[in-house]
Amino acid sequence: MGFDIVNISATNRSASHPFDLSGKVAIVTGSNTGLGAGMALALAEAGCDIVGVSRADAGETPARIAAAGRRFADVRADLASIAPVDDIVRAAVEAFGRVDVLVNNAGIIRREDALDFSENDWDSVMDLNLKSLFFLAQAAARQFVRQQGGGKIINIASMLSFQGGIRVASYTASKSGVLGLTRLLANEWAAQRINVNAIAPGYMATANTAALREDAQRHDEILNRIPAGRWGAPDDLAGPVVFLASSASDYVHGHTLAVDGGWLAR
Question: Which residues are catalytic?
Fold first, then answer.
């Protein structure tokens, strides 16, 4: 595993408002595409330098972070196992001297009838979506404790943290686990000024939902239930992720924020 840094000179920002993230460093997993890329850019625009973690090419994210006037460290790591978690935090510290925010975004989904669901599809989803999420949160929290300045952990949950879903047994189990772990970690770490919260995106137009959007019947069933009348987009997570990463959320602990166009209210 290695990393490269895109060096960009940045102007100083005023720290006069609670959403300002100037001087902060955020690790964002799965930052090369979709929701991860959108959240990385939102954090950069609020002032964060970004440590982007992805298995392969970082995509357009480094250029977008540079255009926002922030620095980007490209870390290649496969979170299918927990082997790289300590190295990810170490790489962030080597690149930028500290870590202030972790966005646990990386995840996968497997679809199959519960009667036919395989052990491999169970393990691969649970290992990435829940096991690696926990141990990366643990590694980040240990760094926060070393820094003695607190920190922010933002886990990415799902509508299936609240509902059962169909044909996604391991995904539902993992995202239900994310909600529970978020609460547990908040209980244990809040006293150390570590905020652990989660965002539960609704039905977003990303690669994970391509199969649903390509199924005309399922597409219409879902769309007709969303009060906002549209699928979500990565930009819809910009405000929530900045809020949970900033001092504006200092008294928010263990909460899972649904960003769902009103889906759960229907």
Answer: 171
